[in-house]
Amino acid sequence: MSRRWSERFNTRARNRLALSAIGEVMRLAEEEGAISLAAGEPCEELYPSRELTASLKRVIASDAQLWSYSNARRGNRDLAEWIARWMARDKLLPRWATHENVFITSGSQEGLHMLTEALLEPGDTVMVESPSYPEALLGFRKEGAHMAGIPLLEDGPDIEKMEMLLKNLNVKCFYTGATFQNPTGLSTSDEKKRQILNLAKQYDFLIIEDDPYRHLSYGNTPGETYLRISGDDQRVLYLGSFSKVIAPGLRCAWTVAPAQVMDVMHKLRIIGNLCLPELNQLAVLDYLEHVKMKKRLAEIRDLYRGHRDALVDALKRHAVPEGLEFNVPEGGFFLWGRINGVEDAEDFSRFAITEEKVAVVPGKGFFPGSGQGLDTIRMSFSKVTPEIAEEGASRLGRALRQYAAR
Amino acid sequence: MSRRWSERFNTRARNRLALSAIGEVMRLAEEEGAISLAAGEPCEELYPSRELTASLKRVIASDAQLWSYSNARRGNRDLAEWIARWMARDKLLPRWATHENVFITSGSQEGLHMLTEALLEPGDTVMVESPSYPEALLGFRKEGAHMAGIPLLEDGPDIEKMEMLLKNLNVKCFYTGATFQNPTGLSTSDEKKRQILNLAKQYDFLIIEDDPYRHLSYGNTPGETYLRISGDDQRVLYLGSFSKVIAPGLRCAWTVAPAQVMDVMHKLRIIGNLCLPELNQLAVLDYLEHVKMKKRLAEIRDLYRGHRDALVDALKRHAVPEGLEFNVPEGGFFLWGRINGVEDAEDFSRFAITEEKVAVVPGKGFFPGSGQGLDTIRMSFSKVTPEIAEEGASRLGRALRQYAAR
Q1: Residue among A381, A301, A371 at smallest CA distance from A336
Q2: CATH architecture of residue range(s) A5-47+295-404
Q3: Which three-class secondary structure state does DSSP give residue A334?
Q4: Where are the alpha helices (DSSP H) in B291-332?
Q5: For A46, which DSSP code?
Q6: How far apart are CA B368 and CA A306, in angstroms?
Q7: Disruptive mutation site among B251, B261, B262 for chain A (greatest number of A CBs within 10 Å)
Q8: B-interface mutation test, from A25, A28, A44, A67, most B Cβ less than 10 A away
Q9: Partner residue opposite A52 with nearest CB, options B67, B113, B121
Q10: Chain B neighbors of A264, CB-CB under 8 A
Q11: Minimal Cα–Cα distance from B200 to chain A, Å?
């Protein structure tokens, strides 16, 4: 007698996996041909196509071993060295971290997943910012972890709430996008990072610092990394990525971790996919060796600053009068908003996509608990040129008006 | 107070992860500059460097979206269609399987890992061939599964032992390399596949068919796939790979699975690494569209047949007189042997590498239980040219003699 698939799958596949809420909105938006304020992706205009093409050509023409399995289970060593030098120059690393603590991954999502697989036991508690990055929450859920949300204030997590929680719960780790966080664009002050690191020592939890937006600051230079501030304490696991500053398509990112964690990741790599393709890593390395990164990052910031300002301006004129409130972030990709008078932003989002052809992401998928942030939305300015911003904001304003008048 | 890392890791990282035994031998062999009969890799001479370079150049010059995230979570659709057509033409697919049942993965290792993550609960029993592929065993162990080994006979698993086991244990799935298996080179007869599929229905277990060596047959055409024979029963999960017939470095393989499993893999993909790089998949697809695969596979078989015959011949002259016994496989990459008079092939392997500079893989890591196959070794002929075969076999003979005389 044959069981149905639902009975064949394990607890994880049956109960702990969900689809990304963002992915569903993106799909619907594409189907409807909507203007998208939903995508958390770089602006295509900024992909260095010409330079990456040249890099790929050089790599292909070189005598690099592109076709065989790579013995470098932790990824290409030269690329790890480049990353370690770069981070050291920017004073992002503590003294103990060298290239031997850099593990190359297929997007920082792979690094986060490996850490999740190495650390979390079903029933463990992960402390997360509320709201937080949905694809991280999906991963924590996959391992059967409980998530405890800490409200995010202007200068970072609510420390009082955090302490209260720590007194009552055994917390395994704290996952944070401390710099221009997805979805709020908020950053944690260095002062608060120090306080949280003290709590981490006191209550012995780890910190996973997810830091893809660091170089996209449109005002002051961002603060220090938890990783650097933690010094010799070795309790911060750091996720860096080239997806936002070069291109996500080559799938190239990295994790900085103590030796013991590197060893576990090495074992998980073999079981998970044996090795990464050298081609992609070498293309990224060649690009990095040819670009003036400082100048390049300034260009990227200039373009995104323009996108942010244009969308902020257009929304103020078209959507704020209809009930939208939002922050103006200092960096990253996102505006985080609340819609006064809307009880279910998910329902509104569907309405806006299908009726007015404009897509925003409902905020509730960013919260660790259910029933939270029902009136919140995330709007991305990264891919939105000033012209599209004007039309998108105008449609959003109209959608809000129509939705209220239903 | 800070816990040590050993206390911070979860049960999985603490108790269920191990390094690959093969990897360790390979490392030592490289350090010692030994002739390697250890590597389970294609012969470099067979990498179609010129054609892959041309394919990469065409892909780079095309207007394909190489730099952005891919929305195709299941991998490139055109590549999935190519694979489905190819498999259908070779009569490897059952009626229900179309390109919508093809999930592209970063090596078949990623597909196997996803299946493992979707199916296995700690304490579940996985039936495996004894011996079997070590990196699969590592993955099953990672999820806390128990492994029950079924001895492998000339025509496949020992059915009587399998039935006895099934009467006593609740088995979740059977992992099999039914065609030119790693490490034995043995294949399961179609008759036996039918018997095992009947048992699978009766005892309701799934079958994971790992099939990377199918196209490397040096005698008759290999038998049917479990996947095909299973018909509408949808209980076979099939792993295919381009690693052995094109090149492993691009990391391109696939899983064929029913819709329900595809959905779970889709969710695991998002959590695991969001998406694959399009570049690698498109290069493989372009290569496939330009190569005459049938002719190409014949060339590959001719070369490997020559490698097999040369190593077999050299071993017969140099090592068999010193106590080596081995099979002559009809396909794949490997000779599987036993060393008469050696009690610990692992110890012998270290001796052979360091003293005589020749590397073979000790067999015990291929067995699901401990204390098994202590006198067995795996020898690979794939990368071993006839000249190297002569010298390697000669060194192996000398190592056996020296080892016996210690």
Answers
A1: A381
A2: Alpha-Beta Complex (3.90)
A3: strand
A4: 293-318
A5: G
A6: 60
A7: B251
A8: A67
A9: B67
A10: 9, 13, 17
A11: 9
Amino acid at A134: P
Q: Which residue in B325, B352, B337 sits closest to B406, CA to CA? A: B352
Tens digits of residue pLDDT in B85-138? 999 999 999 999 999 999 999 999 999 999 999 999 999 999 999 999 999 999
Q: Count interface pairs A-B at CB distance under 8 A.
A: 229
Helix or strand run (H / E) with residue B277: none
Q: Which residue has 């259908």 as its token pair?
A: B88
Q: Which CATH architecture has domain B7-47+295-404?
A: Alpha-Beta Complex (3.90)
pTM to 2 decimal places:
0.97
- The CATH number given to B49-291 is 3.40.640.10
Query: CA-nearest residue of chain A to B270?
Result: A135
ipTM score of complex: 0.97
Q: Which strand (E) or helix (H) includes residue B270?
A: helix B259-273
**Is A121 in Cβ contact with B10 (below 8 Å)?**
yes
Beta bridge partners of B206: B173
**Domain definitions of chain B by residue range:** 7-47+295-404, 49-291
Question: Before B183, cis peptide (omega within 30)?
Answer: yes
Phi, psi angle pair for A271, to nearest 5°? -70, -35
Q: What does pLDDT average to in each consecutive run of 10 residues of chain A (406 residues)? A: 84 92 85 94 96 97 95 95 98 98 98 98 97 96 97 97 97 98 97 98 97 97 97 97 97 98 97 97 98 97 98 98 96 97 94 97 94 96 97 98 94
CA distance A182 to A128: 12
| Alpha-carbon span A163 to A319, nearest angstrom | 38
CB contact under 8 A, B251 and A273: yes
Nearest CA in chain A to B65: A249
3-state secondary structure A216-282: CECCCCCCCCHHHHCHHHCCEEEEEECCCCCCCCCCCEEEECCHHHHHHHHHHHHHHHCCCCHHHHH
CATH code for residues A49-290: 3.40.640.10
Q: What is the C-alpha separation between A366 and A376, in angstroms, rounded?
A: 10
Scanning the structure block, which residue is given the tokens 């001796």? B351
What's the number of CA atoms in the CB half-sphere (13 Å) around residue B311?
31
- Spatial neighbors of B72 by CB under 8 A, at least 6 apart, are B275, B278
Q: Across-strand partners of B175?
A: B128, B208
Angle at B224 between CA B222 and CA B225, to 5 degrees: 110
